[in-house]
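To illustrate the input format used throughout this study, we show a single complete record. The first block contains the structure-token representation of the backbone; no residue identities are included at this stage. The design step must infer an amino acid for every position from geometry alone.
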């Protein structure tokens, strides 16, 4: 006796397993930091979102993004209230991470942090910098000795916009930030994107941001494979966001 096609289809649907996507809580920074990331209307956006979504779509994970202030993000990560943290770096808060088996991915996003000044001060060296501004949570690594020695006074603020206004009005001699983030923020403020410029002759940091996890080392391994095997796709995402 022939089996009807409709019956065959019903049997196949019955025996196929239902594959549920695993929900992963991704802790991300609440602060605006385009083109890397931003939170608008409660929605996480930017390069990091596009990169992580591309990985999740291919790997079968369902990422739920949890934007948090920088300090709370670290504490929630170490306490296991979020599964992943982005951005992260092995040097960041190393003392607080001691005793936790934090697994870091391969480099996920290139960045430069350095000194930005008004164009007329470009190339004038470090000697003119007495008041240096940076964002709360940032560590100006190349200038720690001068700051600790009292030669440079560090001013920190929660908002990048406040720092840029202070530097533009000469209330700060310079800011220590990411040049791409500064240019984007200046444009958002209606100011010329070159009203503060990066001085490459001064000490700066060229490095990468990483994805990290304590609870899911196997996910970090999968992410590393994605970065390697989908290198062209990753490069296209970076290009789209100007990175």
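Output of the design step:
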């Amino acid at each position: 006796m022939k089996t009807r096609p409709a019956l065959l289809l019903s049997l196949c649907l019955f025996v196929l397993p239902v594959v549920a996507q695993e929900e992963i809580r991704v802790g991300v920074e609440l602060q605006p930091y385009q083109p890397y990331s931003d939170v608008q209307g409660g929605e996480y956006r930017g390069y990091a979102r596009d990169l992580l979504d591309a990985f999740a779509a291919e790997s079968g994970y369902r990422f739920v993004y949890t934007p948090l202030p920088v300090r709370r993000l670290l504490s929630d990560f170490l306490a296991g209230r979020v599964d992943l943290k982005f951005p992260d770096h092995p040097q960041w808060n190393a003392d607080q991470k001691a005793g936790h088996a934090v697994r870091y991915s391969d480099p996920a996003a290139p960045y430069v942090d350095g000194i930005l000044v008004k164009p007329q001060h470009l190339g004038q060296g470090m000697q003119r910098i007495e008041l240096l501004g940076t964002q709360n949570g940032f560590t100006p690594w190349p200038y720690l000795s001068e700051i600790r020695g009292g030669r440079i006074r560090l001013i920190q603020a929660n908002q990048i916009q406040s720092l840029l206004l202070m530097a533009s009005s000469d209330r700060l001699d310079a800011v220590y930030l990411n040049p791409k983030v500064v240019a984007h923020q200046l444009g958002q403020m209606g100011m010329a994107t070159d009203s503060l410029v990066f001085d490459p002759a001064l000490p700066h940091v060229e490095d990468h941001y990483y994805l990290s996890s304590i609870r899911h080392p196997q996910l970090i391994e999968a992410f590393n494979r994605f970065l390697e095997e989908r290198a062209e796709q990753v490069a296209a995402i970076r290009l789209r966001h100007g990175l």
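Structural context for interpreting the output: The chain is about 35% helix and 25% strand. Confidence is low (pLDDT under 50) at residues 1-20.
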